[in-house]
Predict the structure.
Amino acid sequence: MAFIQTSFYSQEIARVTSFLAVIPNDQAPAWIENNPNYKRPMKSLYLLHGYTASQWEWLLNSKVQDLALKYNMAIIMPSGDNHFYVDGKGTGNKYGRYTGIELVNYTRKLFGLSDRKEDTFIGGLSMGGFGAIRTGIKYNNTFGRLFALSSALIVNGIMNMPEGSSNEVADYDYYSYVFGNLDKLKESENNPEYLLRLKKRNNEVIPGIYMACGTEDFLLNPNREFYEFLKSEQVEATYMESAGNHNFDFWNQYLEPAMTWLLEH
């Protein structure tokens, strides 16, 4: 298992940034001879962290290294800062393009990863779950499938938010900085529902989506609502719900099932 920390200059976010990667490319033949995942080319997963966290979140709190080895999957963990993996206004704020285009192209070249969408996935938790949904839909020719755990599907809650107001997480200034004009968010590409409908109007294929959320999670209702939206739009979607809160006790229950779901097709 190769563990790599890489820094490089990103054109999209206009600064040097870093990402972590675990690449299962050095395993002994005896370890993998009975593993069917090594009868096919290596696949790749771009794994996104949550709000206030960093690219180290998954590595420090989950078994991503063990799962990368088990499923013959390169796992790339970028930093999204607190930008929800969307394209904000102004220089250096194109976090959507960074995650969905620049990082994918850079890592494919650097590590020799497959350029087939069937071999390329994206996933995340909380803010990263939102990012996986939005990025996977936006760049549907890059990502074959996606998963999103306890996704911070906050768009409907902050839409038309009054200037000077705040909620339990952040304030108007933060949300308008990240998402743009909140009065126009309903018909913005930073709104996954609008983006999905736009793609469908153009007869584009939406990647399959796997979702999970805990019944004690403060984001439960937005996740239920988005799943119902996916069903109404006839998008392939799997939704799992069980006891749990907004923490790694819950996310670690669903990381491996989510990864196996990615590999079903």
Observations:
- The chain has one domain: 2-262.
